[in-house]
Amino acid sequence: MLTKAQIAQFRKAVACHNACGSTDEEAIQFAEVISSDDQVAETRDTIEDFFTHNGRRLNRRGERFDPPWELNKNDFGDVYVWENIQKGKGNRRGTLYVMQFGEFCAAHFTGEIND
To answer: Helix (H, G, I), strand (E, B), or coil: what is residue 16?
Structure first.
């Protein structure tokens, strides 16, 4: 189970990514896309599970990047980002953010999901 501190760290890491890596508090507040803790999903899926479901970018020769292109390191942690993801036909596309915390992952999706 994710703690409040881990959720706060995930929110800051995502905001830092969206602020082009800036650690300036004002830039992070401006770039924050997760407005409340209840917008963060907790899952036991691994990062490899997310790669399986959402793909992994390849270079021009068809080889995997090492480290993965989706990995974004910043002062608050390692955030994996998949952009332009569509979860179902006709749904609005969005960006998927994922961060690993031991056996759990925190995730946030800006697009539309219809069951």
So the answer is: helix
